[in-house]
Design a protein that fits this description.
Order of helices and strands: HHHHHH
Largest sheet: none
Helix content: over 70%
Number of helices: 6
Radius of gyration: 19 Å
Shape: globular
Length: 170
């Protein structure tokens, strides 16, 4: 039985998205990276323009401009964008000092760029499996069965994505 007050259709859609990410995340990476980078640039543009001018209208304009620019840049330079985004989030988790964040961004971006093709199948498979697990547990499935289902889908997804990446590079 599902939890009371749970948005069942939303968690069904979330489980479906988890399956898509787990099985075909590498194949969908340009779209995913474009959306994430567009959202990140839009957020940063909104945040700093609102702090500078204290105007919601100007901030919304810059949010949409940053979103559009991020979508275009993310699609065109997706591997670089993956590296920049991962470095940005990791630097912000490590420290709150802006100068150190910039140094970490500069140092970590090439590292992420080099290892991105190696770790992406695992990242997408694990992320999709975690989304599936969370959705199934919230929908009322036994946690042990949810672990089993998400592990099987994650493993198949990793194999599918790894095979797809290495078929293209050989």
């Amino acid at each position: 039985m599902s939890n009371p007050g749970v948005d069942i259709p939303a968690y069904i859609v979330l489980a479906f998205l988890g399956v898509l990410i787990a099985l075909w995340g590498v194949q969908l990476k340009r779209i995913l990276v474009s959306l994430v980078f567009g959202g990140l640039l839009g957020y940063l543009a909104w945040r700093y323009t609102y702090l500078a001018w204290n105007s919601i209208l100007i901030s919304l304009f810059f949010f949409f401009a940053g979103l559009l620019a991020g979508l275009i840049i993310g699609f065109a330079l997706f591997r670089l964008v993956i590296s920049l985004t991962a470095s940005f989030f990791l630097a912000h988790m490590i420290t709150s000092d802006s100068t150190l964040q910039l140094v970490l961004l500069i140092v970590l971006t090439p590292v992420f760029y080099v290892v991105s093709t190696i770790i992406l199948p695992g990242v997408y498979a694990v992320t999709g499996a975690l989304i599936i697990y969370t959705s199934l547990v919230v929908l009322g499935l036994n946690p042990t069965l949810a672990i089993l289902v998400s592990t099987v889908v994650g493993t198949i997804g990793f194999y599918n994505q790894w095979k797809s990446l290495h078929k293209r590079h050989n």
